[in-house]
Amino acid sequence: MKTLSQRLDEYLVLRRAMGFDLSFDERVLRKFTTYGDENGFDQISTSLFLDWKANYGSADNNTWARRLGMVRRFAFWLAEHDDRTEIPSNQLVMGRYRRRVPYIYAPSQIADIVAEAGRLPSPYGLRAALWQTLFGLIAVTGMRVNEALSLNQHDVDLERAVLTLRNTKNGRDRQLPIKGDTVHRLARYAELRDRLVAHRSSMFFIKEDGEPAGDCGARYNFAQVGRNIGLRSPQAFNRHGRGPRIHDLRHSFAVHTILDWFREGRDIEAEMYKLSTYLGHSEPKHTFWYIEAVPELMQLAAARAERQVLEGAS
Predict the structure, then answer these.
(1) Which of 73, 245, 250, 251 is the catalytic position?
(2) pLDDT tens digits, 149-203
(3) 3-state DSSP: the chain helix, strand, coil percent, rounded to 5?
(4) Tens digit of each residue's pLDDT (9 = 90 or more) over 52-88
(5) Closest to 150 in 3D by CA, of 222, 252, 248, 218
(6) Fold for the domain defined by 104-284
(7) Which of 11, 35, 189, 290 is catalytic?
(8) Is 245 a catalytic residue?
(9) Which residue, 126, 160, 238, 282, is most buried by CB atoms nearer than 10 A?
(10) Which of 2, 81, 100, 169 is an active site residue?
(11) 184 labelled catalytic
């Protein structure tokens, strides 16, 4: 039976092969596994984490929440090799900030969202065209909601098939190439918009009153579409309710892109840096987070890294 420290050695080798910098994580996890080995624990469990927390110095909840996240990632990997592993709940320590686990839409769900948005009622049909086009654009480009809503008409170059995103979350402009079908759908929306609204804002996405479409409207209409197709429960008084979000379209784009790379046998680490730039992430670690957040990606990454380690040893 391998010790927790020996399992940690294997885990660190595999994750470093995926391109992660684990210098800080290793220091924390080494103390965790050493404590477990020295106190008779040969598997990860809630009791081990709580026992370690009670005996390992003093720190605030934010620090312990980060440590819990490191232990949980290690436990998710170890559970693939030792079915006795118990993954400690992320509710054991409540830090100030906890990144929300993304909801990954299946391609069929994305198709349903876009189709249902096209059925939203309005006097002249611009509401349906607006939100159908916006939701579809986010799904196929991975743009942030406000990046799409901030597009000016001159930022949408349909002849060159390029979108220019300005003043983005990280303060940098960037350009996104778009494919032929996306160009066609944007052109259709623009033609309907220009025909129906004479006096209008210079923004690309506008409402029937000529004013720019806004973030609140996007979230409200997305929630309504979600309820119509069963992704959210019915709500009284026009409340949004809880369920998959419009921002999860961005997450789904990233995850499906990475899954395709695994299937095609690409160099994942090299492609991830490209994706980080494309998505406008301030640091590559925000893109690598998808591998940790989505179990299927974590399993694929671990399997590939394990093969690379075995091939290197042979």
Answers:
(1) 250
(2) 999 999 999 999 999 998 677 667 899 999 999 999 999 999 999 999 987 789 9
(3) 60, 5, 40
(4) 999 887 788 888 888 998 999 999 999 988 889 999 9
(5) 218
(6) hpI Integrase; Chain A (1.10.443)
(7) 290
(8) no
(9) 126
(10) 169
(11) no
Which of the 8 DSSP states describes residue 207? -
Q: Which position among 15, 72, 144, 251 bears the catalytic label?
A: 144
Output phi, psi for 39, to 5 deg. -115, 20
Strands (DSSP E) contained in the chain are 156-157, 162-165, 174-177
Whether 247 is catalytic is yes
pLDDT over 70 percentage in the chain: 90
154 assigned to active site: no
Tell me the C-alpha distance between 101 and 286, whole Å.
Answer: 13
Tokens of 187: 């052109």
Give per-residue pLDDT as tens, 84-131: 999 999 888 876 555 677 899 999 999 999 999 999 998 889 999 999
Give yes or no: 207 in active site. Answer: no
Where do the structural domains in the chain lie, given as residue ranges? 4-79, 104-284
Residue among 16, 174, 219, 247 flagged as catalytic? 247
Query: What would the DSSP string read from start to end of 144-199?
Result: -HHHHHT-BGGGEETTTTEEEE-S-TTS--EEEE--HHHHHHHHHHHHHHHHH-SS
The Cα 24–Cα 133 span in angstroms is: 43
94: Cβ contacts below 8 Å, ≥ 6 apart = 61, 65
